[in-house]
Amino acid sequence: MDVKILTNEKNVLEMELKGADQSLAQLLAEKLSDDKDVEFASFKVEHPLVGEPKIFVRTKKGEPGKLVLEKLDEIKKEVTEFKAQFRDIVK
Question: Domain range for residue 33?
């Protein structure tokens, strides 16, 4: 997957996730939306068969790029915990 930054301003970040499906974009947008410092977060796919997911985030304060990194770390931690729990179940 490649990430292409479309807009990177003080409170606004828009990026395209080339080679990804909408699952990661949706999860990241939901995580961002739950943050108190985020004014707006969403994702879109122009066309379901050939479109690339785009994520848009506008913050009330702080740098949106750093916030995206924090949320990706949270997602990684949750997936790691789920994997460990699932591994214990299927032993």
Answer: 2-89
